[in-house]
Amino acid sequence: MFCYDELNFINTQAASQSEHSRPTAGLWQLDEELIRLKKQISIRYHDTGSDGVVCFSQTTFENQDSENRTLTHPPASSTIQLQLPYIPIPQQPHCRMMAMISCRPGHARLSVLLIIGAFINPPSLASAVASGQDNNATAGLSNFDFQVIPAPPGFEAWTSPVTLPSSIQHGDSPWTHSIERAKKFVAQLTVEEKVNLTTGAGIQGRCVGETGTVPRLGFHQPICLQDGPVGVRFTDFNSVFPAGINAAATFDKVLMFKRAQAMAQEFKGKGVNVMLAPMTNLMRTPESGRAWEGPGADPYMAGVATVQGVLGIQSTRVSACVKHYIANEQEHYRGGSGGKASSSNLDDRTLREVYDWPFAEAIRVDVDYVMCSYNRVNQTHACENSKLINGIVKGEYAFQGVLVTDWAAAVSGVRTTLAGCDMNMPGFMAYGQPSESNPSTANSSYWGLKMIEAVHNGSVPIQRLDDMVTRVMSTYYKQGQDKEDYPKTNMMSFGQGTSEEQARLNKHVNVQADHYKLIREIGAASTVLLKNINHALPLKSPKDIRTIVVIGSDAGDNPRGINSCPDRGCNDGTLAAAWGSGTANFPYLIAPATAIQNYVQQVDPTISYQSIFDDYAYDQIGNASLPADVAIVHVNSDSGEGYITVQDNAGDRNNMSLWHNGDDLILKTAQVCNNTVVVIHSVGPVNMEAWIDHPNVTAVLMAGLPGQESGNSEVDILWGKVNPSARLPYTIAKKRSDYPAELVFNSTMNVPQINYAEQLKIDYRHFDANNIAPRFEYGFGLSYTTFKYSSLKVSKAANAQSHSSPSPQQSMFSAKPSSSASDLYENLITLSFQITNTGRMDGNEVAQLYVAFPREVNEPPKALRGFDRIFLSQKQTKTVSMNLRRKDLSYWDVVTQSWKVPTGKFTLMVGSSSRQIHLQHEQLEL
């Protein structure tokens, strides 16, 4: 094994200090220094005693040029030099050149990064770019002076270090028995059969993803993997549930669990083994195309929602699959199927405290599958990022399940395998294959036949393949999916063909049960009341409301039919689910206009009711709204997955505007009706500044994506059958520029760079840190009643003073992967307080707990660390308790690579939103 002792730069001149050469933010950490001095690299190494090969690889910007040297059986100690060539310098804010030095079999590596552009910007560089005339301009490194600059704490390499080998599965209960069974099964398999169980069989089968089979041993049924997060995709007689963003808006752990459980029951009924949910990525930007599938903008909420999702799904014996690991927060340039795969660049602390948080929580409760994403992370493809998969997921977190690729996210064979991926889905290299020129599915796969060859020639150790198959089979056994009572796959996602074939393959099993009741409940429980002037809602009795007009295309049905657009790739009629692989076919959809009309006719048929679905029929809208006692205007904003473009929105929303003339529709109505109620169906925040303060806009409901019972859920809120209690799982800003991060919509780079420069300050954390007033803050929501908070008490556990920071794996799992009674998750603080319903209606209150860390550790001003939804009758008082775990009070220390409880004074805040704080405990020291 070779260890690298020293890295030097020679044949260069030191640069003088200047304001231009000091970075505004660190990007690379190597021995606590940023390397800015480069022409020739000198590496000194020594051999620790084992024979092997030492490899040196130097790669320029975007892998245009490279120099590789290999020394077989090199001297025990020596120095090698690499001459760096000219670097292409594009006209971009930043360009990078990287030298990577790695070795086998020890896999140690030093890395060096050259940043040119905004952070240095010497005059010679500017003139070189200007003289080049185009993006292919080149300039020799000898033209520039660079220097070594100290790096700020917390920044590491913007390329992930190699971490090998992949950990072998070694779980304790509930994995022990299933792993033993799986090992016995795997021991009987040939290499070809093992590969067959880890390489997807394409997308023309019953499910969107299927493994192969082993008929010789009686394993005839492929393992079926199926979308998606709101219901069973590509089938019939299923339900469509409220979206993940709605589940988060409930702030109700019980409803989160029940939603996941009911969905999984339908997956099980269809014979699905792996439900490709929950979606766990955060709403880093408000336009993010798939954020509606997930838990919103806060990592703690994401952790809770993900845990409840995993527990709910796996309570039915269906395997859950959390996705997409990791930093997959936009659709533009996410990669996949030959598209540009951007690099999400983030520092170690941001990764751990924000984006990795919910995945770690899912692994702690024994999730069966983790899906790696299309994008790169710190320049390395997520599915071949061994630092993330081998180092963190399987190493530190001791994940015992299956690491599966997103569909066609694998861009290599051996690298992806050695990085820790266990299953390649759907098996081929890219969508559209096999083609006429390459008809063989097996030949078009990075795995399949290529994997068999790699095992036989030693590129992939047989132990790695054995572990992959063992993981696949142990999850199968763990859930008891081999038992007779587990349904066989009875649906057909693709190629139903003739009616005879359809009858044979698709049994049309009705799995809906009475889930419509839960869907209606969650739809109402996730509807956020944003504005309610003079108690406009709930609507008064029929004797006071005699004339109702319902306005907007979003209130009505899709004139072409509810499932007329594949994967919901259109925006016609009411919006109850967005588009992409995360959607499902509706069995029916109750539009708001239908539900309102039905309710009115049942209550009092003499009430005048009218609906107008033309968003531009201003004269008709004016004539109808003028005499109306209430005008209910429906508007929406849609998004989805990037393989579908809807109204010029390629997955991500182009902006935060309402669709279909929404702003004008509201204003035209409000001009003539002094009781205008606005209902918004949206995937996320919208810009409402044009009309939100209009005095005739008396009430605003943010209904999100409520699923098939949309209209009925709305009626329950409008007439007060349900008292609204939902809260925003994101911030609604007054203007787009108030948000901390931008989507990368356009890039000429081969690898578009998405820099998570906001670091920990996502969403409300940024607004708080910069004292920006939002329109509606994170956690905001009104009720038809009022509540009073009192009597805050705080107590510390006996071990709260301990600041020990064990290694991540020990702290998370106490050396046993499935142990939940670990140091990191023990309770350190218990809070109790009282809430009283002081109003005239029964209702639920959502209490939220925020923590302010000691200033010395540079955390955001406050972070969500607890919540609870409490039902209170009129005048009733209840005592609420919340616990803070060690992890909730810790920050990620990049030096020790562990969670640490900081010294200093904490502040605990209890309120009804991130800015409406009712109780506070200051000066808490641990």
TrEMBL record:
<keyword id="KW-0378">Hydrolase</keyword>
<dbReference type="Pfam" id="PF01915">
    <property type="entry name" value="Glyco_hydro_3_C"/>
</dbReference>
<dbReference type="InterPro" id="IPR036962">
    <property type="entry name" value="Glyco_hydro_3_N_sf"/>
</dbReference>
<protein>
    <recommendedName>
        <fullName>beta-glucosidase</fullName>
        <ecNumber>3.2.1.21</ecNumber>
    </recommendedName>
</protein>
<dbReference type="InterPro" id="IPR002772">
    <property type="entry name" value="Glyco_hydro_3_C"/>
</dbReference>
<dbReference type="InterPro" id="IPR050288">
    <property type="entry name" value="Cellulose_deg_GH3"/>
</dbReference>
<dbReference type="GO" id="GO:0030245">
    <property type="term" value="P:cellulose catabolic process"/>
</dbReference>
<dbReference type="InterPro" id="IPR013783">
    <property type="entry name" value="Ig-like_fold"/>
</dbReference>
<keyword id="KW-0119">Carbohydrate metabolism</keyword>
<dbReference type="InterPro" id="IPR017853">
    <property type="entry name" value="GH"/>
</dbReference>
<dbReference type="InterPro" id="IPR019800">
    <property type="entry name" value="Glyco_hydro_3_AS"/>
</dbReference>
<dbReference type="GO" id="GO:0008422">
    <property type="term" value="F:beta-glucosidase activity"/>
</dbReference>
<keyword id="KW-0326">Glycosidase</keyword>
<dbReference type="InterPro" id="IPR026891">
    <property type="entry name" value="Fn3-like"/>
</dbReference>
<dbReference type="Pfam" id="PF14310">
    <property type="entry name" value="Fn3-like"/>
</dbReference>
<dbReference type="InterPro" id="IPR001764">
    <property type="entry name" value="Glyco_hydro_3_N"/>
</dbReference>
<feature type="domain" description="Fibronectin type III-like">
    <location>
        <begin position="845"/>
        <end position="914"/>
    </location>
</feature>
<keyword id="KW-0136">Cellulose degradation</keyword>
<comment type="similarity">
    <text>Belongs to the glycosyl hydrolase 3 family.</text>
</comment>
<dbReference type="InterPro" id="IPR036881">
    <property type="entry name" value="Glyco_hydro_3_C_sf"/>
</dbReference>
<dbReference type="Pfam" id="PF00933">
    <property type="entry name" value="Glyco_hydro_3"/>
</dbReference>
<keyword id="KW-0624">Polysaccharide degradation</keyword>
<comment type="pathway">
    <text>Glycan metabolism; cellulose degradation.</text>
</comment>
<keyword id="KW-0325">Glycoprotein</keyword>
